[in-house]
User: Fold Retrotransposon gag domain-containing protein from Sesamum radiatum.
Amino acid sequence: MRPTGRRHNVPLPEPQGVPPHWLARLEYLQKGLQDVKYQIEGAPEDERRGVPFTETVMEDELPLNCRTPAIAEYDGAADPMEHLKQWFNQLSVGAIRSFQEFRSLFWHQFASSRKVQKTELSLFDVRQKEDEPLKEYLQRFNNVVLEVPAATQEVKASAFSQGLLDGDFFKSLAKKSVSKFDAHLARAAKYINMEEA
Assistant:
């Protein structure tokens, strides 16, 4: 059966004298056009007009192998779509002539939002807070350790012990120093169990 219009469900007339493989291709193309038309007609008016892309960009066809990139879920405090829409909508109509230009504008706008790679020095910035249990300090410290995969056992051990408050656990480490972070973790686990008992 030939494709029908989505809204009217009226069958299209059968063409005469056309090879079957051409009919199949024609049906495929007609379905694609109907889907596109439906999507365009169904889109809100403000999303189709007034975009900052030039007509040339808007009329350019996407390559057949073009895939929408998988973008990781935004975990910020604000609505990411609203944030992007505000930026996008403030661009002048017809201002973007190419993808490279769009990429450049986007990059300059959001460059400050990029996550900065932490270094081993970042570990030394983590300090135990007053009245903070050892368990919570260790959790915060380990969160930073995960962002510095190149940190050695010795650097992690040194940064961890330097960030400790002067308490029982710190005194224990001062009496019997160990150079490996794994050893610090084992000893910390014993103190955490005592704190929570």
Remarks:
- The mean pLDDT is 75.
